[in-house]
User: Which sequence fits this backbone?
Protein backbone atom coordinates (compact mmCIF):
# COMPACT_ATOMS: atom_id res chain seq x y z
CA UNK A 1 0.00 0.00 0.00
CA UNK A 2 2.72 2.45 0.97
CA UNK A 3 3.95 2.40 -2.62
CA UNK A 4 0.83 4.32 -3.69
CA UNK A 5 2.31 7.39 -2.04
CA UNK A 6 4.93 9.83 -3.35
CA UNK A 7 8.38 9.13 -1.94
CA UNK A 8 8.20 12.22 0.28
CA UNK A 9 4.90 11.19 1.90
CA UNK A 10 5.09 11.07 5.70
CA UNK A 11 5.38 7.60 7.18
CA UNK A 12 5.88 6.16 10.64
CA UNK A 13 9.14 4.23 10.93
CA UNK A 14 9.00 0.56 10.00
CA UNK A 15 10.43 -1.08 13.10
CA UNK A 16 10.88 -4.68 14.22
CA UNK A 17 7.66 -4.14 16.18
CA UNK A 18 5.52 -2.79 13.38
CA UNK A 19 6.83 -4.48 10.25
CA UNK A 20 3.76 -6.22 8.81
CA UNK A 21 4.87 -9.81 8.27
CA UNK A 22 1.60 -11.60 7.55
CA UNK A 23 0.18 -10.41 4.19
CA UNK A 24 2.63 -7.48 4.04
CA UNK A 25 0.95 -6.14 0.89
CA UNK A 26 -2.00 -5.22 3.09
CA UNK A 27 0.23 -3.19 5.39
CA UNK A 28 1.20 0.48 5.40
CA UNK A 29 3.02 2.91 7.66
CA UNK A 30 1.86 6.02 5.82
CA UNK A 31 0.44 8.74 8.07
CA UNK A 32 -2.40 9.07 5.56
CA UNK A 33 -3.52 5.44 6.03
CA UNK A 34 -3.06 5.25 9.79
CA UNK A 35 -4.78 8.59 10.40
CA UNK A 36 -7.71 7.87 8.06
CA UNK A 37 -8.55 4.73 10.05
CA UNK A 38 -8.16 6.42 13.44
CA UNK A 39 -10.44 9.22 12.26
CA UNK A 40 -13.09 6.99 10.67
CA UNK A 41 -14.09 5.16 13.86
CA UNK A 42 -14.57 6.79 17.28
CA UNK A 43 -13.94 3.48 19.09
CA UNK A 44 -10.58 1.96 19.90
CA UNK A 45 -9.21 -0.71 22.19
CA UNK A 46 -6.42 0.32 24.52
CA UNK A 47 -3.98 -2.39 25.62
CA UNK A 48 -1.95 -1.96 28.80
CA UNK A 49 -0.23 -4.17 31.33
CA UNK A 50 -0.89 -4.54 35.07
CA UNK A 51 1.36 -6.91 37.05
CA UNK A 52 2.55 -8.47 33.81
CA UNK A 53 -0.96 -9.31 32.60
CA UNK A 54 -2.68 -7.74 29.57
CA UNK A 55 -5.87 -5.65 29.73
CA UNK A 56 -7.87 -4.36 26.76
CA UNK A 57 -10.34 -1.55 27.47
CA UNK A 58 -12.74 -0.16 24.86
CA UNK A 59 -12.85 3.62 24.76
CA UNK A 60 -13.40 6.62 22.51
CA UNK A 61 -10.31 8.20 21.00
CA UNK A 62 -9.57 11.25 18.90
CA UNK A 63 -6.50 12.52 17.08
CA UNK A 64 -4.62 15.76 16.56
CA UNK A 65 -1.63 15.45 14.23
CA UNK A 66 0.46 12.49 15.35
CA UNK A 67 -1.07 12.38 18.84
CA UNK A 68 -4.03 10.26 19.94
CA UNK A 69 -6.21 11.13 22.95
CA UNK A 70 -8.71 9.39 25.19
CA UNK A 71 -10.57 10.37 28.36
CA UNK A 72 -12.32 9.05 31.43
CA UNK A 73 -12.65 9.39 35.16
CA UNK A 74 -9.67 10.76 37.08
CA UNK A 75 -10.16 7.72 39.32
CA UNK A 76 -10.22 5.21 36.47
CA UNK A 77 -7.93 2.22 36.85
CA UNK A 78 -7.48 1.99 33.13
CA UNK A 79 -6.25 5.59 32.81
CA UNK A 80 -4.00 5.37 35.88
CA UNK A 81 -2.45 2.08 34.79
CA UNK A 82 -1.56 3.50 31.39
CA UNK A 83 0.06 6.71 32.63
CA UNK A 84 3.72 6.90 31.54
CA UNK A 85 3.50 3.31 30.36
CA UNK A 86 3.75 1.68 26.93
CA UNK A 87 0.37 1.37 25.29
CA UNK A 88 -0.93 -0.29 22.12
CA UNK A 89 -4.07 1.42 20.84
CA UNK A 90 -5.89 -0.47 18.10
CA UNK A 91 -8.75 0.80 15.97
CA UNK A 92 -10.55 -1.65 13.66
CA UNK A 93 -13.40 -1.47 11.22
CA UNK A 94 -15.01 -4.57 9.74
CA UNK A 95 -16.24 -3.82 6.21
CA UNK A 96 -17.63 -7.18 5.15
CA UNK A 97 -17.49 -10.95 5.09
CA UNK A 98 -15.58 -12.52 2.23
CA UNK A 99 -17.06 -15.87 1.25
CA UNK A 100 -14.84 -18.14 -0.81
CA UNK A 101 -15.36 -21.58 -2.36
CA UNK A 102 -13.10 -23.19 0.23
CA UNK A 103 -13.26 -22.69 4.00
CA UNK A 104 -9.57 -21.74 4.00
CA UNK A 105 -10.02 -18.77 1.67
CA UNK A 106 -12.73 -17.06 3.67
CA UNK A 107 -11.76 -13.70 5.04
CA UNK A 108 -13.12 -10.32 6.05
CA UNK A 109 -12.66 -6.93 4.49
CA UNK A 110 -11.32 -4.58 7.10
CA UNK A 111 -9.29 -1.51 7.98
CA UNK A 112 -7.25 -1.44 11.14
CA UNK A 113 -4.55 0.64 12.75
CA UNK A 114 -2.24 -0.32 15.60
CA UNK A 115 -0.43 2.57 17.25
CA UNK A 116 2.28 2.37 19.89
CA UNK A 117 3.61 4.96 22.29
CA UNK A 118 3.74 6.06 25.92
CA UNK A 119 0.56 7.49 27.41
CA UNK A 120 0.83 10.83 29.22
CA UNK A 121 -1.68 12.55 31.46
CA UNK A 122 -2.73 16.00 30.23
CA UNK A 123 -2.11 18.02 33.38
CA UNK A 124 -2.68 21.58 32.33
CA UNK A 125 -6.31 22.62 32.86
CA UNK A 126 -6.45 24.72 29.72
CA UNK A 127 -4.95 22.00 27.56
CA UNK A 128 -7.34 19.50 29.09
CA UNK A 129 -10.36 21.72 28.42
CA UNK A 130 -9.18 22.29 24.88
CA UNK A 131 -8.76 18.55 24.30
CA UNK A 132 -12.29 17.85 25.60
CA UNK A 133 -13.66 20.53 23.30
CA UNK A 134 -11.97 18.63 20.46
CA UNK A 135 -13.59 15.37 21.56
CA UNK A 136 -17.03 16.98 21.34
CA UNK A 137 -16.42 18.99 18.16
CA UNK A 138 -14.81 16.10 16.26
CA UNK A 139 -17.93 14.05 16.86
CA UNK A 140 -20.57 16.81 16.78
CA UNK A 141 -19.43 19.93 14.88
CA UNK A 142 -20.70 23.22 16.35
CA UNK A 143 -22.07 21.61 19.50
CA UNK A 144 -19.60 22.87 22.13
CA UNK A 145 -20.82 26.47 22.23
CA UNK A 146 -24.45 25.47 22.67
CA UNK A 147 -23.79 23.27 25.73
CA UNK A 148 -24.16 24.20 29.37
CA UNK A 149 -20.58 25.34 30.16
CA UNK A 150 -18.24 22.92 31.93
CA UNK A 151 -17.68 23.42 35.66
CA UNK A 152 -14.35 23.31 37.46
CA UNK A 153 -15.41 20.17 39.30
CA UNK A 154 -16.24 18.46 36.02
CA UNK A 155 -12.82 19.26 34.59
CA UNK A 156 -11.22 18.00 37.78
CA UNK A 157 -13.18 14.73 37.71
CA UNK A 158 -11.99 14.05 34.17
CA UNK A 159 -8.64 12.79 32.99
CA UNK A 160 -7.41 13.13 29.44
CA UNK A 161 -4.59 10.94 28.14
CA UNK A 162 -2.40 11.99 25.25
CA UNK A 163 -0.05 9.70 23.38
CA UNK A 164 2.49 10.65 20.76
CA UNK A 165 2.41 7.98 18.09
CA UNK A 166 5.96 6.58 18.12
CA UNK A 167 5.28 3.62 15.86
CA UNK A 168 2.19 2.67 13.89
CA UNK A 169 0.89 0.45 11.15
CA UNK A 170 -2.28 0.18 9.13
CA UNK A 171 -3.59 -2.99 7.53
CA UNK A 172 -6.37 -3.07 4.98
CA UNK A 173 -8.12 -5.84 3.07
CA UNK A 174 -10.73 -5.18 0.46
CA UNK A 175 -12.17 -6.81 -2.62
CA UNK A 176 -13.57 -10.21 -3.57
CA UNK A 177 -12.30 -13.62 -2.42
CA UNK A 178 -8.87 -14.55 -3.80
CA UNK A 179 -9.83 -17.95 -5.14
CA UNK A 180 -10.49 -17.38 -8.85
CA UNK A 181 -8.67 -20.66 -9.58
CA UNK A 182 -11.52 -22.51 -7.89
CA UNK A 183 -14.37 -20.50 -9.39
CA UNK A 184 -15.77 -23.68 -10.81
CA UNK A 185 -16.74 -25.14 -7.45
CA UNK A 186 -20.55 -24.93 -7.23
CA UNK A 187 -21.15 -22.65 -4.27
CA UNK A 188 -22.10 -18.99 -3.95
CA UNK A 189 -19.06 -16.77 -3.34
CA UNK A 190 -18.65 -13.05 -2.90
CA UNK A 191 -18.72 -10.31 -0.33
CA UNK A 192 -21.42 -9.51 2.23
CA UNK A 193 -20.62 -5.86 2.97
CA UNK A 194 -21.15 -4.55 6.51
CA UNK A 195 -22.20 -0.96 7.09
CA UNK A 196 -22.18 0.91 10.40
CA UNK A 197 -24.27 4.02 10.35
CA UNK A 198 -26.23 6.48 12.40
CA UNK A 199 -29.99 6.01 12.13
CA UNK A 200 -33.11 7.94 13.24
CA UNK A 201 -32.34 10.18 16.22
CA UNK A 202 -34.24 9.63 19.48
CA UNK A 203 -34.94 12.94 21.25
CA UNK A 204 -34.44 12.79 25.03
CA UNK A 205 -37.59 12.48 27.14
CA UNK A 206 -38.44 15.93 28.50
CA UNK A 207 -36.64 17.68 25.65
CA UNK A 208 -37.40 21.38 25.84
CA UNK A 209 -40.07 22.61 23.39
CA UNK A 210 -38.81 23.80 20.05
CA UNK A 211 -35.46 22.02 20.23
CA UNK A 212 -35.09 20.72 16.69
CA UNK A 213 -32.24 18.44 15.62
CA UNK A 214 -29.46 20.84 14.51
CA UNK A 215 -28.56 20.78 10.82
CA UNK A 216 -24.99 19.68 11.62
CA UNK A 217 -26.31 16.50 13.26
CA UNK A 218 -28.77 15.88 10.43
CA UNK A 219 -25.82 16.23 8.03
CA UNK A 220 -23.73 13.79 10.07
CA UNK A 221 -26.49 11.17 10.03
CA UNK A 222 -26.99 11.75 6.31
CA UNK A 223 -23.27 11.40 5.55
CA UNK A 224 -23.13 7.70 6.39
CA UNK A 225 -20.00 8.39 8.45
CA UNK A 226 -19.70 7.93 12.22
CA UNK A 227 -17.74 11.17 12.48
CA UNK B 1 -27.67 -6.01 36.01
CA UNK B 2 -26.84 -9.31 37.64
CA UNK B 3 -29.78 -8.85 39.99
CA UNK B 4 -32.16 -9.40 37.07
CA UNK B 5 -31.21 -13.06 37.14
CA UNK B 6 -32.51 -15.81 39.41
CA UNK B 7 -30.10 -16.57 42.27
CA UNK B 8 -29.08 -19.87 40.65
CA UNK B 9 -28.13 -18.27 37.30
CA UNK B 10 -24.59 -19.08 36.23
CA UNK B 11 -22.07 -16.32 36.78
CA UNK B 12 -18.34 -15.92 36.40
CA UNK B 13 -16.63 -15.24 39.72
CA UNK B 14 -16.36 -11.58 40.74
CA UNK B 15 -12.64 -11.23 41.39
CA UNK B 16 -10.38 -8.30 42.22
CA UNK B 17 -9.59 -8.23 38.50
CA UNK B 18 -13.12 -8.17 37.18
CA UNK B 19 -15.12 -6.30 39.82
CA UNK B 20 -16.68 -3.42 37.89
CA UNK B 21 -15.77 -0.33 39.92
CA UNK B 22 -16.71 2.50 37.54
CA UNK B 23 -20.52 2.60 37.10
CA UNK B 24 -20.95 -0.83 38.74
CA UNK B 25 -24.68 -0.83 37.96
CA UNK B 26 -23.70 -1.27 34.30
CA UNK B 27 -21.66 -4.35 35.10
CA UNK B 28 -22.55 -8.02 35.16
CA UNK B 29 -20.77 -11.35 35.51
CA UNK B 30 -23.72 -13.44 34.38
CA UNK B 31 -22.89 -16.02 31.71
CA UNK B 32 -26.01 -14.87 29.87
CA UNK B 33 -24.73 -11.28 29.51
CA UNK B 34 -21.11 -12.11 28.73
CA UNK B 35 -22.05 -14.78 26.19
CA UNK B 36 -24.71 -12.68 24.45
CA UNK B 37 -22.14 -9.98 23.74
CA UNK B 38 -19.47 -12.42 22.57
CA UNK B 39 -22.01 -14.01 20.25
CA UNK B 40 -23.45 -10.79 18.86
CA UNK B 41 -20.22 -9.50 17.28
CA UNK B 42 -17.72 -11.63 15.33
CA UNK B 43 -14.88 -9.19 16.05
CA UNK B 44 -12.80 -9.03 19.20
CA UNK B 45 -9.52 -7.49 20.29
CA UNK B 46 -6.98 -9.84 21.83
CA UNK B 47 -4.50 -8.37 24.29
CA UNK B 48 -1.21 -10.12 24.99
CA UNK B 49 2.24 -9.19 26.21
CA UNK B 50 5.61 -9.47 24.44
CA UNK B 51 8.74 -8.43 26.37
CA UNK B 52 6.58 -6.64 28.91
CA UNK B 53 4.81 -4.50 26.29
CA UNK B 54 1.11 -4.73 25.38
CA UNK B 55 -0.23 -5.70 21.94
CA UNK B 56 -3.85 -5.60 20.80
CA UNK B 57 -4.72 -7.57 17.66
CA UNK B 58 -8.16 -7.52 16.03
CA UNK B 59 -9.45 -10.94 15.11
CA UNK B 60 -12.59 -13.02 14.69
CA UNK B 61 -13.68 -15.11 17.65
CA UNK B 62 -16.34 -17.66 18.35
CA UNK B 63 -17.63 -19.38 21.47
CA UNK B 64 -18.63 -22.83 22.64
CA UNK B 65 -19.90 -22.97 26.23
CA UNK B 66 -17.41 -21.15 28.42
CA UNK B 67 -14.57 -21.34 25.89
CA UNK B 68 -13.66 -18.73 23.28
CA UNK B 69 -11.76 -19.54 20.09
CA UNK B 70 -9.80 -17.65 17.43
CA UNK B 71 -7.69 -18.71 14.45
CA UNK B 72 -4.92 -17.63 12.11
CA UNK B 73 -1.70 -18.70 10.51
CA UNK B 74 0.40 -21.33 12.27
CA UNK B 75 3.28 -18.87 11.75
CA UNK B 76 1.43 -15.88 13.22
CA UNK B 77 3.30 -13.94 15.89
CA UNK B 78 0.09 -13.02 17.59
CA UNK B 79 -1.01 -16.65 18.00
CA UNK B 80 2.43 -17.83 19.06
CA UNK B 81 2.89 -15.05 21.60
CA UNK B 82 -0.46 -15.86 23.23
CA UNK B 83 0.10 -19.61 23.57
CA UNK B 84 -0.01 -20.69 27.22
CA UNK B 85 -0.02 -17.02 28.25
CA UNK B 86 -2.58 -14.84 30.01
CA UNK B 87 -4.87 -13.11 27.53
CA UNK B 88 -7.57 -10.46 27.79
CA UNK B 89 -10.08 -10.76 24.96
CA UNK B 90 -12.47 -7.84 24.64
CA UNK B 91 -15.54 -7.62 22.45
CA UNK B 92 -17.35 -4.27 22.13
CA UNK B 93 -20.38 -3.00 20.31
CA UNK B 94 -21.18 0.69 20.04
CA UNK B 95 -24.95 1.18 19.92
CA UNK B 96 -25.23 4.97 19.76
CA UNK B 97 -24.09 8.41 20.76
CA UNK B 98 -25.72 9.92 23.83
CA UNK B 99 -25.96 13.70 23.56
CA UNK B 100 -26.56 15.56 26.80
CA UNK B 101 -27.03 19.27 27.63
CA UNK B 102 -23.57 19.44 29.19
CA UNK B 103 -20.33 18.17 27.66
CA UNK B 104 -19.68 16.14 30.83
CA UNK B 105 -22.85 14.08 30.53
CA UNK B 106 -22.25 12.90 26.98
CA UNK B 107 -21.81 9.17 26.64
CA UNK B 108 -22.29 6.27 24.29
CA UNK B 109 -24.63 3.34 24.48
CA UNK B 110 -22.64 0.15 24.30
CA UNK B 111 -22.29 -3.51 25.15
CA UNK B 112 -18.88 -4.92 25.96
CA UNK B 113 -17.35 -8.06 27.40
CA UNK B 114 -13.86 -8.54 28.78
CA UNK B 115 -12.79 -12.14 29.23
CA UNK B 116 -9.60 -13.40 30.86
CA UNK B 117 -7.87 -16.75 30.68
CA UNK B 118 -4.88 -18.64 29.35
CA UNK B 119 -4.78 -19.30 25.60
CA UNK B 120 -4.11 -22.87 24.48
CA UNK B 121 -3.26 -24.19 21.05
CA UNK B 122 -5.72 -26.76 19.72
CA UNK B 123 -3.30 -29.54 18.78
CA UNK B 124 -5.53 -32.40 17.80
CA UNK B 125 -6.32 -32.35 14.06
CA UNK B 126 -9.88 -33.53 14.52
CA UNK B 127 -10.61 -30.99 17.22
CA UNK B 128 -9.06 -28.30 15.09
CA UNK B 129 -11.14 -29.23 12.05
CA UNK B 130 -14.23 -29.31 14.19
CA UNK B 131 -13.48 -25.87 15.61
CA UNK B 132 -12.99 -24.41 12.12
CA UNK B 133 -16.28 -25.92 11.03
CA UNK B 134 -17.85 -24.08 13.97
CA UNK B 135 -16.24 -20.81 12.84
CA UNK B 136 -17.84 -21.18 9.40
CA UNK B 137 -21.21 -22.50 10.57
CA UNK B 138 -21.63 -19.92 13.35
CA UNK B 139 -21.24 -17.18 10.74
CA UNK B 140 -22.86 -18.89 7.75
CA UNK B 141 -25.28 -21.68 8.71
CA UNK B 142 -25.30 -24.66 6.32
CA UNK B 143 -22.26 -23.45 4.36
CA UNK B 144 -19.62 -25.98 5.46
CA UNK B 145 -20.97 -28.95 3.49
CA UNK B 146 -21.18 -27.00 0.25
CA UNK B 147 -17.53 -25.88 0.33
CA UNK B 148 -14.61 -27.45 -1.44
CA UNK B 149 -13.30 -29.78 1.32
CA UNK B 150 -10.32 -28.68 3.40
CA UNK B 151 -6.94 -30.17 2.55
CA UNK B 152 -4.39 -31.53 5.01
CA UNK B 153 -2.00 -28.69 4.13
CA UNK B 154 -4.68 -26.13 4.87
CA UNK B 155 -5.35 -27.62 8.29
CA UNK B 156 -1.62 -27.67 8.96
CA UNK B 157 -1.16 -24.04 7.95
CA UNK B 158 -3.90 -22.97 10.38
CA UNK B 159 -3.71 -22.58 14.13
CA UNK B 160 -6.74 -22.48 16.36
CA UNK B 161 -6.52 -21.05 19.87
CA UNK B 162 -8.93 -22.04 22.60
CA UNK B 163 -9.31 -20.24 25.90
CA UNK B 164 -11.34 -21.31 28.89
CA UNK B 165 -12.97 -18.21 30.33
CA UNK B 166 -11.60 -18.04 33.88
CA UNK B 167 -12.91 -14.57 34.68
CA UNK B 168 -15.22 -12.30 32.73
CA UNK B 169 -17.36 -9.22 32.96
CA UNK B 170 -19.94 -7.52 30.80
CA UNK B 171 -20.75 -3.83 30.85
CA UNK B 172 -23.78 -2.30 29.20
CA UNK B 173 -25.10 1.23 28.87
CA UNK B 174 -28.39 2.03 27.19
CA UNK B 175 -31.06 4.67 27.28
CA UNK B 176 -31.22 8.47 27.08
CA UNK B 177 -28.79 10.96 28.64
CA UNK B 178 -28.86 11.05 32.43
CA UNK B 179 -29.29 14.81 32.78
CA UNK B 180 -33.02 15.32 33.30
CA UNK B 181 -32.20 17.94 35.95
CA UNK B 182 -30.81 20.17 33.20
CA UNK B 183 -33.55 19.53 30.64
CA UNK B 184 -34.22 23.23 30.56
CA UNK B 185 -30.93 24.11 28.88
CA UNK B 186 -31.78 25.07 25.28
CA UNK B 187 -29.94 22.48 23.21
CA UNK B 188 -31.02 19.33 21.40
CA UNK B 189 -30.37 16.20 23.47
CA UNK B 190 -31.03 12.55 22.85
CA UNK B 191 -29.56 9.45 21.30
CA UNK B 192 -28.16 8.97 17.80
CA UNK B 193 -28.41 5.18 17.45
CA UNK B 194 -25.72 3.33 15.49
CA UNK B 195 -26.57 0.23 13.51
CA UNK B 196 -24.13 -2.26 12.01
CA UNK B 197 -25.68 -4.46 9.39
CA UNK B 198 -25.09 -6.60 6.35
CA UNK B 199 -26.14 -4.91 3.11
CA UNK B 200 -26.54 -5.97 -0.56
CA UNK B 201 -24.32 -8.96 -1.35
CA UNK B 202 -21.63 -8.60 -4.06
CA UNK B 203 -21.25 -11.84 -6.04
CA UNK B 204 -17.60 -12.71 -6.81
CA UNK B 205 -16.40 -11.93 -10.33
CA UNK B 206 -16.45 -15.15 -12.34
CA UNK B 207 -19.15 -16.68 -10.13
CA UNK B 208 -20.32 -19.89 -11.75
CA UNK B 209 -23.61 -19.62 -13.63
CA UNK B 210 -26.74 -20.36 -11.65
CA UNK B 211 -25.16 -19.82 -8.24
CA UNK B 212 -27.89 -17.92 -6.42
CA UNK B 213 -27.42 -16.47 -2.93
CA UNK B 214 -28.49 -19.29 -0.58
CA UNK B 215 -31.61 -18.69 1.49
CA UNK B 216 -29.62 -18.97 4.74
CA UNK B 217 -27.44 -15.99 3.72
CA UNK B 218 -30.47 -14.00 2.55
CA UNK B 219 -32.02 -14.71 5.97
CA UNK B 220 -28.87 -13.58 7.76
CA UNK B 221 -28.80 -10.28 5.85
CA UNK B 222 -32.51 -9.81 6.51
CA UNK B 223 -32.14 -10.50 10.24
CA UNK B 224 -30.15 -7.33 10.93
CA UNK B 225 -27.69 -9.41 12.95
CA UNK B 226 -24.03 -9.94 12.07
CA UNK B 227 -24.30 -13.61 13.02
C1 LIG C 1 -17.98 1.64 22.96
C2 LIG C 1 -17.42 2.06 24.29
C3 LIG C 1 -16.93 3.36 24.47
C4 LIG C 1 -16.42 3.75 25.70
N1 LIG C 1 -15.92 5.02 25.83
C5 LIG C 1 -15.34 5.39 27.00
C6 LIG C 1 -14.73 6.67 27.16
O1 LIG C 1 -14.63 7.45 26.20
N2 LIG C 1 -14.20 6.99 28.37
C7 LIG C 1 -14.27 6.12 29.43
O2 LIG C 1 -13.81 6.46 30.52
N3 LIG C 1 -14.82 4.91 29.30
C8 LIG C 1 -15.36 4.53 28.12
N4 LIG C 1 -15.94 3.29 28.02
C9 LIG C 1 -16.00 2.45 29.24
C10 LIG C 1 -14.64 1.79 29.48
O3 LIG C 1 -14.57 0.60 28.69
C11 LIG C 1 -14.44 1.40 30.96
O4 LIG C 1 -15.53 0.67 31.42
C12 LIG C 1 -14.30 2.62 31.84
O5 LIG C 1 -13.34 3.48 31.28
C13 LIG C 1 -13.85 2.26 33.24
O6 LIG C 1 -12.57 1.65 33.16
P1 LIG C 1 -11.78 1.21 34.49
O7 LIG C 1 -10.61 0.37 34.12
O8 LIG C 1 -11.53 2.42 35.31
O9 LIG C 1 -12.91 0.33 35.16
P2 LIG C 1 -12.92 -0.62 36.41
O10 LIG C 1 -14.34 -0.67 36.87
O11 LIG C 1 -11.85 -0.26 37.41
O12 LIG C 1 -12.51 -2.02 35.77
C14 LIG C 1 -12.47 -3.18 36.61
C15 LIG C 1 -12.97 -4.38 35.85
O13 LIG C 1 -14.31 -4.13 35.43
C16 LIG C 1 -14.53 -4.76 34.20
N5 LIG C 1 -14.80 -3.78 33.13
C17 LIG C 1 -14.43 -2.48 33.08
N6 LIG C 1 -14.83 -1.91 31.93
C18 LIG C 1 -15.46 -2.88 31.23
C19 LIG C 1 -16.08 -2.91 29.96
N7 LIG C 1 -16.15 -1.84 29.17
N8 LIG C 1 -16.64 -4.08 29.55
C20 LIG C 1 -16.59 -5.18 30.33
N9 LIG C 1 -16.01 -5.20 31.53
C21 LIG C 1 -15.46 -4.06 31.98
C22 LIG C 1 -13.28 -5.52 33.84
O14 LIG C 1 -13.35 -6.85 34.34
C23 LIG C 1 -12.22 -4.73 34.57
O15 LIG C 1 -11.07 -5.51 34.79
C24 LIG C 1 -16.43 2.86 26.80
C25 LIG C 1 -16.89 1.55 26.61
C26 LIG C 1 -17.37 1.14 25.37
C27 LIG C 1 -17.82 -0.28 25.19
C1 LIG D 1 -11.81 -7.08 11.47
C2 LIG D 1 -10.56 -7.95 11.45
C3 LIG D 1 -10.68 -9.34 11.53
C4 LIG D 1 -9.54 -10.15 11.49
N1 LIG D 1 -9.70 -11.49 11.63
C5 LIG D 1 -8.59 -12.28 11.67
C6 LIG D 1 -8.69 -13.70 11.90
O1 LIG D 1 -9.79 -14.23 12.12
N2 LIG D 1 -7.55 -14.42 11.90
C7 LIG D 1 -6.33 -13.84 11.68
O2 LIG D 1 -5.32 -14.55 11.67
N3 LIG D 1 -6.21 -12.54 11.49
C8 LIG D 1 -7.31 -11.74 11.47
N4 LIG D 1 -7.16 -10.40 11.26
C9 LIG D 1 -5.82 -9.89 10.99
C10 LIG D 1 -5.04 -9.75 12.30
O3 LIG D 1 -5.38 -8.52 12.90
C11 LIG D 1 -3.52 -9.81 12.08
O4 LIG D 1 -3.15 -8.90 11.08
C12 LIG D 1 -3.06 -11.18 11.65
O5 LIG D 1 -3.59 -12.15 12.50
C13 LIG D 1 -1.54 -11.29 11.67
O6 LIG D 1 -1.10 -11.13 13.01
P1 LIG D 1 0.45 -11.26 13.38
O7 LIG D 1 0.68 -10.76 14.76
O8 LIG D 1 0.90 -12.64 13.07
O9 LIG D 1 1.05 -10.22 12.33
P2 LIG D 1 2.49 -9.65 12.14
O10 LIG D 1 2.55 -9.26 10.71
O11 LIG D 1 3.56 -10.55 12.70
O12 LIG D 1 2.47 -8.34 13.04
C14 LIG D 1 3.61 -7.47 13.05
C15 LIG D 1 3.15 -6.04 13.11
O13 LIG D 1 2.34 -5.78 11.97
C16 LIG D 1 1.36 -4.81 12.31
N5 LIG D 1 0.00 -5.41 12.19
C17 LIG D 1 -0.34 -6.71 12.25
N6 LIG D 1 -1.69 -6.85 12.14
C18 LIG D 1 -2.19 -5.60 12.02
C19 LIG D 1 -3.49 -5.09 11.87
N7 LIG D 1 -4.60 -5.91 11.83
N8 LIG D 1 -3.65 -3.75 11.77
C20 LIG D 1 -2.59 -2.90 11.82
N9 LIG D 1 -1.31 -3.34 11.95
C21 LIG D 1 -1.12 -4.67 12.05
C22 LIG D 1 1.58 -4.43 13.76
O14 LIG D 1 2.45 -3.30 13.83
C23 LIG D 1 2.28 -5.66 14.31
O15 LIG D 1 3.02 -5.34 15.46
C24 LIG D 1 -8.27 -9.56 11.32
C25 LIG D 1 -8.15 -8.17 11.26
C26 LIG D 1 -9.28 -7.36 11.33
C27 LIG D 1 -9.12 -5.86 11.30
C1 LIG E 1 -11.83 -23.68 7.89
C2 LIG E 1 -11.86 -22.40 7.91
C3 LIG E 1 -10.65 -21.49 7.86
C4 LIG E 1 -9.32 -21.73 7.78
C5 LIG E 1 -8.65 -23.07 7.66
C6 LIG E 1 -8.64 -20.47 7.81
C7 LIG E 1 -7.28 -20.29 7.78
C8 LIG E 1 -6.62 -19.10 7.92
C9 LIG E 1 -5.19 -18.90 7.93
C10 LIG E 1 -4.15 -19.97 7.72
C11 LIG E 1 -4.96 -17.58 8.10
C12 LIG E 1 -3.61 -16.86 8.15
C13 LIG E 1 -3.33 -16.11 6.88
C14 LIG E 1 -1.96 -15.44 7.01
O1 LIG E 1 -1.76 -14.67 7.97
O2 LIG E 1 -1.11 -15.71 6.17
C15 LIG E 1 -6.21 -16.95 8.22
C16 LIG E 1 -6.36 -15.62 8.40
C17 LIG E 1 -7.57 -15.01 8.35
N1 LIG E 1 -8.79 -15.63 8.28
FE1 LIG E 1 -9.17 -17.57 8.14
N2 LIG E 1 -9.56 -19.51 7.91
C18 LIG E 1 -10.80 -20.09 7.93
C19 LIG E 1 -12.01 -19.50 7.99
C20 LIG E 1 -12.16 -18.16 8.01
C21 LIG E 1 -13.42 -17.50 7.97
C22 LIG E 1 -14.78 -18.17 7.91
C23 LIG E 1 -13.15 -16.17 7.98
C24 LIG E 1 -14.10 -15.03 7.93
C25 LIG E 1 -15.25 -15.04 7.29
C26 LIG E 1 -11.72 -16.01 8.06
C27 LIG E 1 -11.08 -14.79 8.14
C28 LIG E 1 -9.71 -14.63 8.23
C29 LIG E 1 -9.06 -13.35 8.28
C30 LIG E 1 -9.72 -11.97 8.26
C31 LIG E 1 -7.71 -13.59 8.34
C32 LIG E 1 -6.60 -12.53 8.41
C33 LIG E 1 -6.00 -12.32 7.05
C34 LIG E 1 -5.10 -11.10 7.08
O3 LIG E 1 -4.14 -11.10 7.90
O4 LIG E 1 -5.39 -10.13 6.34
N3 LIG E 1 -11.15 -17.23 8.07
N4 LIG E 1 -7.22 -17.89 8.10
C1 LIG F 1 -16.08 17.77 27.90
C2 LIG F 1 -16.46 16.59 27.59
C3 LIG F 1 -16.46 15.40 28.50
C4 LIG F 1 -16.13 15.23 29.80
C5 LIG F 1 -15.65 16.29 30.76
C6 LIG F 1 -16.31 13.83 30.13
C7 LIG F 1 -16.06 13.25 31.35
C8 LIG F 1 -16.12 11.90 31.62
C9 LIG F 1 -15.82 11.27 32.87
C10 LIG F 1 -15.40 11.97 34.14
C11 LIG F 1 -16.00 9.95 32.73
C12 LIG F 1 -15.84 8.85 33.79
C13 LIG F 1 -17.15 8.38 34.32
C14 LIG F 1 -16.89 7.29 35.36
O1 LIG F 1 -16.20 6.30 35.06
O2 LIG F 1 -17.37 7.47 36.51
C15 LIG F 1 -16.41 9.74 31.39
C16 LIG F 1 -16.72 8.51 30.91
C17 LIG F 1 -17.25 8.34 29.68
N1 LIG F 1 -17.45 9.30 28.72
FE1 LIG F 1 -17.06 11.25 28.87
N2 LIG F 1 -16.79 13.21 29.03
C18 LIG F 1 -16.89 14.13 28.03
C19 LIG F 1 -17.33 13.95 26.77
C20 LIG F 1 -17.77 12.76 26.31
C21 LIG F 1 -18.34 12.55 25.02
C22 LIG F 1 -18.54 13.61 23.95
C23 LIG F 1 -18.66 11.24 24.96
C24 LIG F 1 -19.35 10.50 23.84
C25 LIG F 1 -20.22 11.02 23.01
C26 LIG F 1 -18.28 10.62 26.19
C27 LIG F 1 -18.42 9.30 26.49
C28 LIG F 1 -18.04 8.69 27.67
C29 LIG F 1 -18.23 7.30 27.95
C30 LIG F 1 -18.86 6.25 27.06
C31 LIG F 1 -17.74 7.07 29.22
C32 LIG F 1 -17.73 5.74 29.98
C33 LIG F 1 -18.90 5.66 30.92
C34 LIG F 1 -19.00 4.24 31.46
O3 LIG F 1 -18.03 3.76 32.09
O4 LIG F 1 -20.08 3.61 31.24
N3 LIG F 1 -17.75 11.57 27.00
N4 LIG F 1 -16.49 10.94 30.74
Assistant:
Amino acid sequence: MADHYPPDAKTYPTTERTRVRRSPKRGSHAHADVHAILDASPLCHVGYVIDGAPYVTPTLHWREGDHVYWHGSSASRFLRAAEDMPVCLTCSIIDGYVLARSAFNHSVNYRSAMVFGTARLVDDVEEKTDALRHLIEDLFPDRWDSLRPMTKQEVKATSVMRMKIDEASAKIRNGPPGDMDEADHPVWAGVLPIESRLVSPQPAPGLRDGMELPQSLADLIQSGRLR
